[in-house]
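Note to self: keep these together.
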Amino acid sequence: MIKLPGVAAAALLFAGPVPAQDPEDMETVLVTGEQPGPGLWKVSRDGHVMWVLGSIGALPDTITWRTKEIEARIAESQEVLYPGWPSVNLDVSVFKALTLVPLAFKAARNPEGEKLQDLLSAEAYASWLRLRKKYLDDDDDIEKYRPMVAEEKLNNAIGKKAMKGLKMSPVDPVIHKIAKKYKVRINTLPPVERKIKVEKPRAILKAGRDLDLAEGECVGRNFVRTEKLDEKGLLAFDVAATNAWATGDLEALRQQPDPALAELQREDCTMAAFNAAMNSESSELPAEVRRGLDLIQRQQDLYKEAGQEAERNWVTAAEAALAKNRSTFAVLPMNVVLNPWIYLAKLKEKGYVVEAPGIGPTDENAGPFR
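Structure:
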């Protein structure tokens, strides 16, 4: 068996979730009741305007979003514009995917029967046990899983707990209801999709199943960091950012995340293992493992390519809407709106006037992208 850092074979077919956060033991108090929500960005040229709302993924049930300004802007618009997002899918039939589940489950286990205690430092294992007791069901079988798989299951459990009491996608239902009320057309751009043909996926999984992944040290550091974040109450959805969105505090939104927490940011151990394997000599790896690694690299490249195309599609649609409509209403994720290089920034480069809520037109040193 090859002793070499690699990538979990199951990751070739199943993508893990983004680590979520736990709302307990917060020092920051969550706002409640009716809140104004964020102000609207304004993009304009030649008397035509596009109002842009920065959306948020979830809100607690205790917050009611005041939507009078949103309703007024949609009512005067001729179009509501939504982006189409990128996606990269592995071309594996449903039947074939089902037959791969047993192999993927075997690939999730340590190849020589080791347990987490054998692969983690004493400090990391102690952190893992405390986190497991708090967030996971009492399942001793998880001790046989590869460290990266155990970490994913932990993050899943943390995320599930964090989502209790939250309303998912609170913006879209409101926008759609208002648009329907005023008979305003909703223009949702098609997703930008890429597919990767997977040849002999069973062979890739079987080869990866017996590969010893040297990720224990990396995952162990993450367990220690996760426990420290948990102790600080920083594993929950970001209360400060949620408050900033609900109250329209643009400056507070710009300041997220807190740079002081950089030392506690968790590592991407899957990618670290993948990069180490990609940088190794091809002769050291079985051909099927190398093919699996190439597949992951292809997936990354295609996602970047699709993301760039999705942005170009949105900018093109936004320009068309600005030329055709006296008023357009657009919805983008808040992190996209605040990004100084993409989407709204591209319109600014093309000569459109971009104004942030309460700030006015941008220049080289100020505005929504500072």
